[in-house]
Amino acid sequence: MGSFPEWLGDISSSLLYINVSHNKLSGVLPKSLSQIKTGLMSTWDFSFNNLSGPLPPFPPKVYELFLSNNMFTGFVSSFCETSSLSVTYLDLSSNTLTGPLPNCWQKFQNLEVLNLANNSLSGRVPESLGNLQSILSMHLNNNIFSGEIPSLTLCKESLRFIDFGDNNLEGTLQTWLDLDHLIVLRLRGNKIQGSIPTSLCNMLSLKILDISSNNITGEIPQCIGHISAMSDMEFRIETVFYGTSAPLVFHDSGIGLFFDEILLTLKGRDVEFNRLLGLLKAIDISNNNLRGEIPKSITSLVALTSLNLSRNNLTGLIPDNIGCLKSLESLDLSRNYLHGRIPTRISNIDFLVYLNLSFNNLSGMIPIGRQLDTFEMTSYVGNTGLCGSPLENQCPDVIPQRGRRVHKKEDELLSFEFYLSMGLGLFVGFWSVCGTLIVKSSWRYAYFQWFMNVTDWMYVTIVVFTVRMKRRLRIQDLEVKFLSSLIMLSSRWVY
Questions:
Q1: Average of pLDDT values for 356-360?
Q2: H helices then E strands: how many in the chain?
Q3: Model confidence pLDDT, tens digit, residues 458-488
Q4: If 0-12 CB within 10 Å is exposed, 13-18 middle and 19+ buried, where does residue 110 land?
Q5: Contacts of the segment 5-13: beta carbons below 8 A, 24+ positions apart
Q6: Which of 239, 346, 336, 350 is nearest to 288 (CA)?
Q7: 19 pairs with which residues across the strands?
Q8: Is this model's pTM higher than 0.85 or not?
Q9: Is 312 helix (H, G, I), strand (E, B) or coil?
Q10: Nearest residue to 211 via CA among 198, 222, 195
C-alpha cells in the first residue's frame, strides 16, 4: 500500500528480479527506473496494483515486463521509443491505454508474448506485428481496433495463439489465414465477412476455433473433419508448455509460470480459461450468417469438448452419427432451421451436460435415456413438431407410466405377445397330461390308482393326527384339574 518508492532508482547493485505485484501501490512510476542497473534476462513485475500515469522508460536489459491490471494511461508509442529490444514477454493488459499502436514492432525480434488486451487502443493493427518472427502468443482482444488484419505470414512458423476478439476488425479470413501451426484462433465479436476458407482445414494443430459474432457467410466446409488435433483423444504432457506444437497454456521462463487466458462461451455462459486451456478443444461459429447443412465430417472430431453452431441459417438434419462425439460436454445448435428428428444416438454422449436445440424446426419424439433425462424444457422449446418429456405436449402414441414414457404401440404389442404365450403354455401343458390319459387306458388306470392311494394315505394320516391331538389335550385337561385342586387345598390350610 502507498506510492511507489522513489529510492528504488538509487540502487547501485544490479537487479535481476523485481516483483511488487498484487499490492496496493499507487502513483506514478518514477523516470529514474530507466537508470536502474539490471542483469541479463531480468524480470520486472508490477502487475495488479493501482499504478497510474504514462508508461515510463525502462532499462535496456529488461527481459520480461508485467504491467497488467493497473491504471496506466496514454499512448504505447513511448514504450517503443525507450524500451529494451531484448524484451521477450510484454504484458500491458487491463489498463486504460488509448490511441493507435505505433508501427515499430519489427525491432522487437525476440518478443514471444504480446498482451495488450482490455484497453482502449484504437486504429489499425500495425503491419509490423506481422514481422515478429519469434512471436508465440498475441493478445489484442477487447480494444477498439479497426480495419483489416495485416498479413501474419512471417509469423507462421512460431505463432501458436491469436486472440483478436471483441474489436471492430474487418476483411475476410482468406487474406491472411495461412498459419499451419496455430493452436488457438479467437476472432469473436468483429466485423469479418466472407466465407470460411478451406485452408482452415489445413491447420491441423488447431484446438480452439472461435469466430463467432461476425458476418461470415457461406457453408461450413466439408473438410472441417480433417483437423487432426480435434480428433486426438490422447493428452500429451508436452502440450502444456510454450514453444511446442501444442496448446499454449503457460510460459516457463525459469523464474515463474505465466498463463495464457481466453474467454469462451461454454455451456451457455462466458467462461475464462487459463490453467485448463490445454484440455479444451472447442469450435464456436455461432451468430453468423452460415447456411447449408451441418457437415457429416464434423462428427469425426471425437475429441471436441464444445460445439456451438447456434444463431445461423443452417438447414437439413442433425447428423445421425452425432453420438460419435463422445467427449462433447456442450452442444448448442439453437436458432437455426434444422428439421427432422433428434437422433437417438445423441444419448451415447456420456459427458454431455449442456444441450440446446431450441428454436429450430425439429419434430418427432424427444429421445430418452442416460443424461438426456436430465435436460429441461429450455433445451427443446421453439420446435413445434417436438413432443414428449420434458415438453408439455405429449406425443399422440405415447402414454406416461410411473414417471417415464411408454409407447402405446409397443405396449399393445407386448400385451398381445404376453397373452399369446400364456395361452399356448396352458394349452400345451393341459394336453400333454390329459391327452395322454385319454389316449392310453393303462396310464389312465395307473394314474387314478396312484391318485386314490395318495388320497387314502392323506385321510389316514389326518385321522391318526387328530386322535393323537385329542388324547394329548385330554391328558393336559386332567393335569390342569389336578393342579387346581391342590392350589385350593393349600389355600384353605393357610387360612
A1: 95
A2: 3, 32
A3: 766 776 777 777 676 666 555 555 555 555 5
A4: middle
A5: 6/30, 6/32, 8/32, 8/33, 8/36, 9/33, 9/35, 9/36, 11/36, 11/37, 12/37, 13/37
A6: 336
A7: 45
A8: no
A9: coil
A10: 195
